């Protein structure tokens, strides 16, 4: 089953900048393994929706930088603020999306990564180690 990934831009894909720094044309810096991670998500046929607290007025410069770094995505949602984000979704009952599934399917997960670190910890996941936290669970979702 394909998934929809909501992924923040600043501090996750590129080094975090404040709106003033974006307006001043500060140099954008790609974070480690951001493109590789998103390419893996895209290859699976999943949908990538980028989210950002960047203002709508920063749309063109943001799209330019995403294109420059070859960051794949399907949509971008601007201006969502920098506060905590909560995703609410339903739990699919068993058999709702495929007749062979014998259990219910939670449809919302959260993965928090350190600001400005990138996806190195997620891409270096050791599949032989037991899952210890939500970040480790990322590869189970893919």
Key structural traits:
5 helices, 26% helix, elongated
Per-chain topology:
Layout: E1 4-8, H1 19-23, H2 34-43, E2 47-51, H3 59-68, E3 75-77, E4 91-92, E5 105-106, H4 120-123, H5 134-141
Parallel strand pairs: 1-2, 2-3
Antiparallel strand pairs: 4-5
Report the mean per-residue pLDDT as an integer. Answer: 82
Structural class: alpha/beta
Q: Sheet with the most strands?
A: 3 strands, parallel
Q: From the structure provided, what is the oligomeric state, counting identical versus distinct chains?
A: single chain
Strand line-up of the largest beta sheet: 1-2-3
**Helical residues, percent:** 25-40%
The run of helices and strands is EHHEHEEEHH
Describe the 3D structure.
- This protein has 142 residues and is α/β, with parallel strands linked by helices.
- The protein has one domain: Rossmann fold, CATH 3.40.50.
- Helices cover 26% and strands 12% of the residues.
- It has five helices and five strands.
- A three-stranded parallel β-sheet has the order 1-2-3, covered by helices on one side. Strands 4-5 form a two-stranded antiparallel sheet.
- The radius of gyration is 16 Å and the shape is elongated.
- The termini are close together.
Quick summary:
The chain is α/β, with parallel strands linked by helices and 142 residues long. The chain is 26% helix and 12% strand.
């Amino acid at each position: 089953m394909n998934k929809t990934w909501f992924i923040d831009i600043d501090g996750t894909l590129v080094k975090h900048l404040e709106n003033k720094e974006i307006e001043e044309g500060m140099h954008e810096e790609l974070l480690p393994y951001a493109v590789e991670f998103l390419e893996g998500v895209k290859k699976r046929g999943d949908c990538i929706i980028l989210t950002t607290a960047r203002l709508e007025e920063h749309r063109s410069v943001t799209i330019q930088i995403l294109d420059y770094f070859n960051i794949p995505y399907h949509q971008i949602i601007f201006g969502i603020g920098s506060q905590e984000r909560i995703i609410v979704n339903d739990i699919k009952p068993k058999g709702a999306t495929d007749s062979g599934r014998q259990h219910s399917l939670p449809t919302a997960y959260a993965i928090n990564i350190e600001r400005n670190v990138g996806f190195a910890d997620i891409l270096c996941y050791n599949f032989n180690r037991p899952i210890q936290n939500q970040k480790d669970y990322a590869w189970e979702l893919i």
